[in-house]
Specification:
The chain is mainly α. The chain contains 12 helices and 3 strands, in the order H-H-H-H-H-H-H-E-E-E-H-H-H-H-H. It has one domain.
Amino acid sequence: MIPIPETSAESWAVLAIVIVAALAADLAIFHRRSQEIKLTTALAESAGWIGLALAFNAWVYWIRGPQAGVQFLTGYLVEKSLSADNILLFLVIFKAFGVPARRQHRVLYYGVFGALVLRGIFVYAGVELLRKFHPILYAFGGLLLLASLQMMLAETREKKPERNWMVRLARKLVNVDPNYEGERFWLKRNGKRMATNLLLALVAVESMDIVFAVDSVPAVLAITRDAFIVYSSNAFAILGLRALYFALADTFPRVRYFHQGLAAILAFMGFKMILSDHLPISDLASLAAIGGILAATAAVSWLNPRRPEKAGQ
């Protein structure tokens, strides 16, 4: 059984301070007003979030050593790659609920809070399950292989997000006004408190993250059982997801073999987890494999691009 490292309270405090400070700066400085995010702004912000993640990676390397540094980088790369699948789902969600371009950042911003909390719950549960019942790793590995197969066969996980169970439940619990009123999630009509479609879009984003976490958390747990590394790599990928969406929303649907590449990553992580007790794969080998899969996906997609008329499929 692989020992699970403990993390000091100081390290968790540093992580919390960095996350809170980054989110506060994003809202109070960079996005004080509601506006459509331009490509150049999105690219600059995405570079900034990646730079912040790499700086934190360097700090982890410094205080925890080379192994933890490599594990964080590998986990971040896996999580960043898998989270890119959300870009396609965001497009579907915003189209389904008719969210204007200038309101989309608000939905994603508040979606980050819920995603960070949900991811913490999933990470804690996953680590505790592995700690107390080690054979569960075979179930996690099988789950990753199943997710790989599903991703290989389907281009998007949810064609009609307005019909998922959390959105339908929200519609039953609250009255919904189909109109938008600025960036408000709630409004009053004839003295009654009502939700807007902006809130339903947020519910759809959060429900999507629950499904996504089922794949992504076991994938990083295949790299390390260190809860700090698993959660922090997840958190930094989530923090940069909004900027990545606005930067690549028009590009990713045209990457022909995008889902096949992600499916290969999930399959690799699934086999790595299942074989970990008998044929362990080193951290550096895992990093090289993930990087190789992503490079091959980009190269093959560039050499054989999707036809323009099929870009929206």
